[in-house]
Amino acid sequence: MKNTICFILLLVGSYSLAQIKFQGVVRDSSKQVLELATVVAFDKATNALESYKSTDELGKFLLTLKKNTAYKIQISYVGMQTLEDSIFTKEADIVKDYVLQSESTLDAVEIVYEMPVTIKGDTVTYNADSFKNGSERKLEDVLENLPGVEINEDGQIEVEGKVVNKLMVNGKDFFDGDTKLASKNIPSKAVDKIQVLRNYSEVGQLRGVTNNQDNIALNIKLKEGKENFWFGDVTVGGGSSPDEGLYLIQPKLFYYNPKYSVNFIGDLNNIGEVALNRRDIRNLSGGFRAPSRSSGTDINLGDNSLNFLTNQNNAIEIDTRLATANFSYAPNPALDLSGFAIFNSSKIRSRETSFVQYTNLTLGIPDEATEQTSEERSNQGIVKLSASYQPNFSNQMDYDIIGRISNDEQNRRLFSSVLGDTRQREEVSPYSINQNLNYYYTLDENNIFSLEAQHVLKNEDPFYNAILENDPDPDADPNFPDDDEYDATAAGLGLDQSLDNYNLGQNRRIESNQLDAKIDWFNILNTKSNINVTLGTIISRQQFNSSLFQFLDDGSQFDPTPTINDGLDVNDTEYNFSDIYLGARYRVKTGKFTITPGVSVHAYGNKNTQQGQTFEENFFRVLPEFETRIQFKKSEALTLRYDMRNQFTDVTRLARGIVLNNFNNIQFGEPDLQNALSHNVNLIYTSFNLFNYTNVFARASYSSNIDQIRNLTDFESVIRTNTFFNSNFADESVNVSGRVQRTFGKIRASLRAGFNYSKINQFIQGQRSLNEGFTQSYTPSIRTNFKVAPNVTLSYRYSVVDNNQGGRETQFITQSPSIDVDAYIWKAVTFRTNYSYTNQNLGNGQSQSFQNWDASLAYRKDRDAKFEYEVKATNLLDIDSQVRNSANNFSVFTSETFILPRFVTFRVVYSL
User: Fold this and answer.
1) How far apart are CA 711 and CA 720, in angstroms?
2) CA dihedral angle for residue 63, residue 64, residue 67, residue 68, rounded to 10 degrees
């Protein structure tokens, strides 16, 4: 690692010594400086792009060029004639100013070279070919080369620190804007332009009256060829592993013409290369956003799907099948039809060992060592259809419907040093239907109306079964249980304790029906200000029923009578919620400031009925909000945001009957729960300078939760029982994160840092304790961006986690250097490798470490070749497991997770 760093530093040093600076100022004919004019230098001998920059707010540009070289200089600006010049560099720096002339007819401008970056209003357009070095294969490879663009650890695209929430191809939604599907599957050679759409609004009528500063969209423009064309690739591969043969089949096919498009992505493999994981599919919203998202009300319908423990990073076996299709069709200019379908099937096995220490030393909860194996099966399906009708600018109507269905199963075998051998099985087959209707109407130049309505229908049916060892003692007094650690809990659940095993199960069904709708009136007062009045409602109904039972040795079921919650083992609960609100916002621009104060008045109604009793509450609440934005320059802004939010829980926390989250995690609800109130403050700074390619993003947030709904937890050995109550003790959290990125010629350096402080009140065995946590992380990195030389990325992650939980202080220090090498050799061979080393210091003089090393070697005759051949190896060091140390509100734990062994595969890729 040290030798590699020295090599990079020497390379950077020698590169910089062989260069000179070319700088100056660009003005128009009236001598006014031009900000964001593009200055490009082309090497005359090779006709290759050497360097480019945009002018700053003073019209200045600065290019770094090679010595003793002839260059063609091209300067362009929207609305101006493109200017061309020639220079020859020697040993000294060059200073030269330019004046651009106005051009009344833009079509008359002959652009000889493609601009690497052009800016027009809020749209930044990158010419993809200017950022390719030959080793790219997918869209994400190109995106990572763009200044200000990153792919984060979750595979999401970030622009200037903001997550891109919509991606289009040729102006049409690609799987409703899912960025991960696009970035990992669209071939890089099909990409012509990448447009970053800042302040993006899906509804053009509302663009001038709403704050869209956090909305970023990408539009991928494909290379022009024929009116109707196919593109994409098909990958087929195979290989061997210690236990089984390996296979991989991945067709990725795309068809576009001016009226319609069809996209298909398939994946069939047991190598662990998952195109979409289960969390990605679960989070695929289909573009749905709740109309009440900015009303100040948060109501949680809950998520009763299986809490899968495994993903592709901590599995010992993965078998996945994915089929997706997306279409768009425009029968006429006013109507757009689109939709997609996704089917995913996966089988994953995992193995993990862990050691748990509970944080509250006064309670005497024993430390626990566990070994767990798991097999998870999941089948998921999603279908969505959309229609958008816009006969003229004054009218637009959108309708969407999305349906989801899944069948999931999880089987676990757990051996605990405290509880012995346990087998668990979970199943769920939920479905949901979401419908969305939006209508936007412009009455005149000063009045705009909109209707947004969303209906959600969910049905969830989780089943849980656990079998635990038991040593029956028929003479045992229930008040003095024998040595089995689960016996006291079994007595509290009302189970039959005379059997060799506790075989308990629970059926649950949760039905949710919610309407979320609002009407907005936007009145434009003048060019600088407007007012927005909102009338909205949320109407929600949830029905929850569950039954706890015990399987006896003869196969019959025993209906227990628990003693820990007044004998309630069955839930039959109906929860109705309503919110009718009236809100107003005033938006005004004055100089560099955009100020938006607002307030909403809510009439809330809560009612839940269970066991023949009704619990009801009706009240009013006023929720203020405020936002101010300071626009220092076109690409530099500071935003301050405050809002007060009212948070409501779901039906499962209100139901008084027993709910088994796990055999050692039991809950029963509290029907008198009230809402929780939170104060939230956010401060966001963004700066993107195309003059020197410096990208700065920083975010600071503070949250204080008042009258928080929290757990009241009792432990019996390592089994915990939870109920809920409203607490006057406030929980607080502070988060600060930021990233600085700067490009120096062919070198890009960045630093990402994050700080988090949290204060959480918890109640265990009736005792309150204060848990404080502080996390800090720093990730510096340096990356080269050469056109022909190998490119290297060096990164180092350093993080410290400090926790003070119930009197036990812990500290974890993680250090993780990594190196990536990407080489395109002889214009035919692509070599890639990445290596990382992770060391975790446990704060007690002990440390743990593990390594990851992957590599691939690919050959294609040239960039336009139809066939490519690749050998790829993962986990080259054949590491068995990875270690992880962390802490939560109750415990500190160390785990060892076993991973996939060394895989070596051979692949053939055919490109259309």
Assistant:
1) 11
2) -30
Q: Could you say which DSSP state residue 344 is in?
A: E
For residue 108, name the pLDDT band (cuts at 50, 70, 90): very low
Residue type at position 301: L
Residue with structure tokens 């490119």?
Answer: 791
The answer to whether 149 touches 161, Cβ cutoff 8 Å, is no
Going by C-alpha positions, the residue among 486, 437, 429 that lies closest to residue 462 is 429
Q: Which residues of 684-699 are buried (b: 16+ CB within 10 A; e: fewer)?
A: bbbbbbbbebebbbbb
Banded model confidence at residue 619, pLDDT cuts 50, 70, 90: very high
| Phi, psi (degrees; rounded to nearest 5) at 554 | -85, 5
Query: Do residues 280 and 180 make contact, with C-beta atoms less than 8 angstroms apart?
Result: yes
CA pair distance 645, 293, nearest whole angstrom: 10
Provide the pLDDT for residue 422. 92
What Rg, from alpha-carbon coordinates, does the chain have? 30
Enter the DSSP assignment of 789.
Answer: S
**Which has the closest alpha carbon to 710: 890, 497, 478?**
890
3-state helix, strand, coil in the chain (%, to 5): 5, 65, 30
Is 862:827 a contact under the CB 8 Å cutoff? yes
Query: CB–CB of 735/748 below 8 Å?
Result: no
- Write out the two tokens for 581: 């609100």
Cα separation, 559 vs 553, in Å, equals 14
36 has pLDDT over 90: no
Element (H, E) at 9: helix 2-17
CB burial of residue 374 (10 Å; 0-12, 13-18, 19+): buried
The predicted model gives 729-752 an average pLDDT of 89
Q: What is the DSSP string of 362-419?
A: GGTPPPEEEEEEEEEEEEEEEEEEEEEEEEETTEEEEEEEEEEEEEEEEEEEEEETTT
Cβ neighbours of 778 (radius 10 Å): 14
Task: Decide: 659 and 614 in contact? Cβ < 8 Å.
Answer: no
Single out the residue of 895, 899, 887, 882 nearest to residue 370, CA to CA. 895
> What whole-number distance in Å separates Cα of residue 252 and Cα of residue 910?
10
Q: How many CB atoms lie within 10 A of CB 209?
A: 19
> Given this model, what pLDDT does residue 293 score?
87
pLDDT category, 148, cuts 50, 70, 90?
A: confident
Torsion angle in degrees (nearest 10) through CA of 303, 307, 313, 315? -150
* Alpha carbon 363 to chain centroid, angstroms: 38
State pLDDT tens for residues 360-401: 655 677 888 999 999 999 999 999 999 999 998 889 999 999
Nearest to 489 by CA among 697, 715, 684: 715
List all residues 6 or more positions away from 349 whose beta carbon is below 8 Å from its beta carbon.
310, 315, 316, 317, 373, 374, 375, 376
Q: Can you tell me the distance from the alpha carbon of 725 to that of 710, in angstroms, rounded to the nearest whole number?
A: 6
727 vs 497, 723, 835, CA distance in Å? 37, 13, 48
Q: What secondary structure, in 3-state letters, does 695-727 show?
A: EEEEEEEEEEEECEEEEEEEEECCEEEEEEEEE
Cβ–Cβ < 8 Å for 650, 508 = no
Residue 160 CA to residue 641 CA, distance in Å, equals 19
Beta bridge partners of 332: 335
Q: Which residues contact 432 (CB under 8 A, 6 or more apart)?
A: 403, 404, 456, 457, 458, 459
- Residue 475: the pLDDT is 54
Instruction: Select the more confidently predicted residue: 564 or 536.
Output: 536
Q: What would the pLDDT profile of 460-504 be if each residue is shown by its tens digit?
A: 999 999 999 888 765 555 554 455 788 888 888 889 888 889 999
Phi–psi pair at 639, nearest 5 degrees: -125, 130
Q: Which two tokens stand for residue 393?
A: 């600018």
| Residue 719, token pair as written in the block | 């089994």
